[in-house]
DNA sequence: TAGATTGTTAATCGATTAACAATC
DNA sequence: TAGATTGTTAATCGATTAACAATC
């Protein structure tokens, strides 16, 4: 029986995975518990057990969860037992920073195509990746069947870029442009806007 | 009577504000409606009306919301009728990109102090701001009563940096380090981790 | 065996939505 | 007046938590 799992549960799995990897790196134990994990993440142990129980029984009464095993399971669930090749659009300062970020590879992603509209950038390289003209976006994405893209363009062109990415077959977009993007259902969009995040916190400051 | 307003409501206000600013920039109308705003943001009109009603009655039956007025009100609520000076820790490629980002000023923030631990960077400038040694962090934050900070350091030192920021008086932290930070209650922490965001989406991809 | 911890149930808590009287 | 849209209520829907039998 296929049960629809809430988005909010899916959203926590990468957080669990990230903390489990830290436990692996610390390397001093083979198992952990929902209590320990919750303690480290500020999440209740009941919620962690409930979340995981949507996908199977990964723990053992009395001993908890085998860290390596749970990491493997979460990677399978999140489809991270592969490296997702990523297209990046926009090589301004943020795009360049993302292209150089070495935290992608180890966690399942690799920026392998980079696009910009600026003729003085096209043909150059960023972190070993050739910068292509945005004109080539559709052909490249279709040819390589790329599913994941990052938008790091100015806000003014982000919706247009998103439309073209979607038309070319992209299924998941992470956008750094500070505006809501419209995309057809079946295409997943997530956002990162530092100002929005800061504004959420200033409410609570005198 | 003071009612506790849910965090999730507060979290949507900056989104409303951002879209209202877009309507201002488009400049072709003085008013909007919860229906229009919801349409543009993929949020139900009922939710928008409910959210706003926590803070007052900002609309008029039949005509909707006066855009400029609602922007003003939201800015007041979010304490954005001032510019918040921000301290940035870490001047790697991401920190540098943030220091150069010109989207802060217009929306209520300004990176005015920058810290790094690398002696070859200390004393240089990034976007007109002097790079200080991390040693000077406590004194500078206390002296200027800085409330908001951004962490763009490697994960390995992020918790230590956060502890020092908090001890010096910082009340809101936006962290780009890919790990959960522990902070005392009363200190607000938000996160931006591109990999976590991408991992949330790959679950839905074949 | 005794202690620890799971997976699950039922209860609680909170958020969203539908509907509509009020009124511009 | 007629149409549009608010603010609010009550109903629905969904998420979190507390508690505990099962069992390692």
Please explain how this structure is put together.
The structure is a homodimer of 206-residue chains. In chain A, helix 1 (7-26) packs antiparallel against helix 4 (67-77). The first copy, chain A, folds into two domains: 7-77, Arc Repressor Mutant, subunit A; 84-197, Rossmann fold (3-Layer(aba) Sandwich), CATH 3.40.50. With 206 residues, chain A is of the alpha/beta class. Chain A starts with 6 loop residues before the first helix and ends with a helix. The first copy, chain A, contains eight helices and ten strands. Chain A is 42% helix and 19% strand. In chain A, a hairpin with a 2-residue loop joins strand 6 (125-126) and strand 7 (129-133). In chain A, the strands form two sheets. A seven-stranded mixed β-sheet of chain A has the order 6-7-5-4-8-9-10. A three-stranded antiparallel β-sheet of chain A has the order 1-3-2. Chains A and B meet through helix 1, helix 5 and helix 8 of A and helix 1, helix 5 and helix 8 of B. The first copy, chain A, binds a DNA duplex (24 and 24 nucleotides) through residues 6, 8-9, 33-35, 44-47, 49-50, 52-53, 57-65.
Which residues of chain A sit in consecutive blocks of at least 5 with pLDDT less than 50? none
Largest interface: A-B, 58 and 58 residues
The CATH class designation of the largest domain in chain A is: Alpha Beta
Radius of gyration of chain A: 20 Å
Q: What's the number of structural domains of chain A?
A: 2
Give the strand order of the largest sheet of chain A, numbering strands 1, 2, ... along the chain. Answer: 6-7-5-4-8-9-10
CATH fold-level label of the largest domain in chain A: Rossmann fold
Order of helices and strands of chain A: HEHHEEHEHEEEHEHEEH
The largest sheet of chain A, given as strand count, sense and whether it forms a barrel, is: 7 strands, mixed
């Amino acid at each position: 029986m296929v049960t629809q799992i809430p988005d909010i549960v899916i959203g926590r799995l990468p957080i669990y995975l990230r903390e489990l990897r830290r436990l692996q790196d610390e390397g001093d134990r083979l198992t952990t518990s929902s209590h320990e994990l919750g303690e480290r993440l500020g999440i209740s142990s009941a919620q962690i057990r409930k979340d995981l129980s949507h996908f199977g029984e990964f723990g053992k009464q009395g001993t908890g969860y085998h860290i390596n095993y749970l990491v493997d399971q979460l990677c399978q669930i999140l489809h991270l037992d592969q490296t997702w090749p990523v297209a990046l659009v926009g090589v301004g300062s943020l795009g360049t920073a993302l292209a150089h970020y070495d935290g992608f590879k180890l966690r399942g992603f690799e920026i392998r195509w980079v696009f910009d509209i600026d003729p003085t950038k096209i043909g150059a390289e960023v972190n070993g990746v050739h910068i292509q003209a945005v004109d080539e976006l559709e052909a490249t994405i279709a040819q390589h069947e790329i599913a994941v893209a990052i938008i790091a363009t100015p806000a003014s062109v982000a919706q247009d870029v998103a439309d073209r990415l979607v038309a070319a077959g992209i299924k998941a977009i992470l956008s750094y442009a500070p505006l809501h993007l419209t995309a057809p259902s079946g295409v997943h969009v997530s956002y990162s806007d530092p100002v929005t995040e800061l504004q959420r916190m200033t409410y609570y400051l005198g």
